[in-house]
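User: Sequence for FERM domain-containing protein 8 below. Tokens please.
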Amino acid sequence: MKEGESVQAVYPSGRFTTVSQIHETVMAALGLPSEAVDCFSIWLSSKHLQLQLKSYHLPCKLFKKWKDLLSQYTNTAYDDICQDEPILTFQRNTFFPLKEERKMIDPKKKSENEKAIDLLYNEAVFNVTKTRYPLEETDYHELAGIQAATFAVEHPGEGLTSGNLHPYLQTFYPPHLLEPPTGGQKSLLKLFRQRSVEHSLAEEKLRGHFEKVASKRLSAHNLKILYLQYCWSKPFYGSVMFHGQIERPFKAVHILTYSDKRVTVALNPHCLHILDSKSPPGIMLYLTYDQLSWEFEEAPEDGEDFYSSLWLEFDSVLELEDREEKVTKRVQVFSPTGDTDYKYQFFHQ
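Assistant: Structure tokens for FERM domain-containing protein 8:
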């Protein structure tokens, strides 16, 4: 689980234990209702690769093949591959329809779905505070206010109030909102002062949102639902992400420094995003599946330095001086991770 909770179990089937068996054990250990069986999946994850497993997969077999999977599906350095160790996690099923997730907040089923809401909330907080989602600064302040109010209700002994938010800023905010803008040479003293300014600005914003949310006097459960509802409004919610690269427009003046642009492709059952590699990521392209056509191109078998690629074709509007012209654009995304079957499960709906 994203909050660090663990479930331990012993299986007589040993290395032949399937994902389905593990999933059933975790569901029972957490007391999750049968309605939530499709909401969560077993993942095999490390900082270099995250794979949502299928019910028939054998995790022990995949553990042994992990280094091969990293070599095949990532461009991770050899030394990092040798040291990488994956773990099994229980988290949201990327293919679970959002309309079904919304049904889980039914007040009549609060006692049944409370743990599921806890898990979804913790995962959403992780994705927000780790800047996996391309959010605006105002979004971070809104969500930090809800998270702070939730923390105050769940941990009354901590004494969190609008007057002592400063020690908790790093809990509620991603690092980039607490750091001074980069660029130029700055002395340590100047950096320290600028960091203090950023902290003060974030604390002031957080105080306003925290007080507004806290004044509603909601329970922790309802505050978590409020947080999820905010995230549900974003089209990229629940996306699985993989890294890739696209070709930059060629410019002769930059021929010596010319290179592909690193991007992240985010897919969920509703749409596709291409995000830049900044922190937080920015949206370069957003398309629903009915707005695009696609084609997958396998990498040549004898080409070690070539990746598979995903071609996207879509209509766009070119703004000219005196008129607008409808054009068709094509984007080619190169990615070793693109070989995984996420593309088929989403695009073939």
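Residues 319 and 325 are 6 Å apart (CA to CA).
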